[in-house]
Amino acid sequence: MPQMTCNVASVEKLNAFLYRIFLSPTCTAHFKAGQYVSVIMGEGDKRHFSIANIPSNELIELHIGATPDNQYAMQVVEKMQSGETVEVEIANGDAYLREDSARPIILMAGGTGFSYVKSLLEQIVESDIKNPVYLYWGVKEYSHFYFEEQAKQWANEHQNIHFHPVVELPEVHWQGKQGYVHQAVLEEFNDLSTFDIYVVGRFEMAKVAREDFIKKGALIDHIYGDAFAFI
Predict the structure, then answer these.
(1) Residue 194, strand partner residues
(2) Digit-coded pLDDT (tens) for 145-198
């Protein structure tokens, strides 16, 4: 994959564990919506993160969930906070948006996996794709919805986009969907055979979701997720 040097344009802490980072490539970055970058930390040490924006943007946006007990991500954040340039591989992954498909779309994200579907949604809007789009974003606690207003705005401004937030451990006042995010999809649709389904989240969640979606008729060739290359 193409390797390039990036300057760190900004590092913003969005909440207790989430960082929004913008990288400025020193040359033009070519990628598709839904692909990821690999941050090169050393010989044989590459850390993978979804690109949260679309190719028409000159910067590369990352959303990195990092805590001191998650050194895989925290070391990357610390490197970027240091002001050093970073080396990355760009345009990794096969779970990019199939723009020529006429099938309805399900986007299912867990936690900071929203960065992946953000890229897909921005491309859908920019390309004026009219396929029905159903966004399911699952988090453990309501406070973890760090881009909820943006998701609501897409749904309000585009009749074909439908946003379904899902909270695993809801507070008493929560009136929306609750439990596991893939279960919310299963409860909504009896037949998934006509859909393109994009999945992002923990490997174990992605594995169970794919198995359960196939039981509901989903076609394996139309279930996309980079996790499936590792499980």
Answers:
(1) none
(2) 999 999 999 999 999 999 999 999 998 788 999 999 999 999 999 999 999 999
User: Distance (Å, rounded) from C-alpha 142 to C-alpha 154?
Assistant: 19
Parse the chain into domains and list their residue ranges.
3-92, 105-229
CATH of domain 3-92: 2.40.30.10
CB atoms within 10 A of CB 138: 28
The CATH T-level fold of domain 105-229 is Rossmann fold (3.40.50)
Nearest alpha carbon to residue 227 among 64, 89, 77, 113: 113
Phi, psi dihedrals of residue 37, rounded to the nearest 5°: -105, 155
Q: Give the H/E segment covering residue 158.
A: none
Distances (CA, A) of 92 to 18, 33, 75, 179, 182: 22, 11, 21, 31, 25
Q: Are 33 and 122 in contact (CB under 8 A)?
A: yes
**Would you give the DSSP letter of residue 54?**
-
pTM exceeding 0.85: yes
**Which contacts qualify for 4-7: CB closer than 8 Å, 24 or more apart?**
4/29, 4/87, 4/88, 4/90, 5/85, 5/86, 5/87, 6/60, 6/85, 6/86, 6/87, 6/88, 7/85
Give the residue among 139, 149, 132 at the shortest CA–CA distance from 65: 139
